[in-house]
Amino acid sequence: MIDPSGHSVAVDRAQIKRYLDLIYPPELGWRGMISASHSLPDGTGMPSGRWTRDGAMDGLAELAESAVRRGAPGTYLRCSTVRADLRQGARGGAGDSVELPGLWADIDIAGPGHKHDPGKHGTRPLPADVDQALGIITASGLPWPSAVVHSGGGLYAWWLTERPIDLDATPGARDYWSTVSAAWQARLAAGAESMGLHYGTGVGNLDRVLGLVGTLNAKIPGQPRMRVLTELGDGRRREAYELERAAMSGRDATPVVTGKPGAAGDGRVEGPIPASSVHVAGHVSPLDDFESRHSWAEILVPKGWALVKGDAVAGGYCEWRRPGASHPLSASTGKDPQRDRLWCFSDAAGLPVNEPLTKGYVYAALWHGGDLRTAAGAVRELGYGTLARQRPVAVGAARGPQVASGNPGTAPVARHLELVPASGMGGPRASRWLWAEAGAHWLPLGGLCLLGGREGLGKTTWTYRLIAQLTAGTLPGDLLGQPRAAVIAASEDSWEHTIIPRLMAAGADLDLVYRIDAVEPDRRTGVSLPDDLAALGVLLAEHPQIGMLVLDPIITVLSAKLDSHKDHEVRKALEPISALAHGTGVTVVGLIHDNKSSGTDLSTRLMGSRAFVAVARAALVCTEERGEPDESATDALGADPVQIERSGEPLPASAAGPPRVFVLGQVKNNLEAKVAWSIRYRIGAVSVGRDVELDKDIRGSHIVRIGRQTSGVEEIVREQERGGSDRTQVRRAAGQAVIDLLTAEGETQSLVVKTRLGEQGHAPATVERAMRDLGSKITVTRKGRNTYWSVTGHNPPSNISDLEDVDDVLMHVMPDAGQGSNSRLAEGTGTDSPQSPHESALPARDVSRCECPCAASLPAGQHTPWCSVGRVTA
Question: Three-state secondary structure along 207-252?
Answer without folding.
Answer: CCEEECCCCEECCCCCCCEECEECCCCCCCCECHHHHHHHHCCCCC
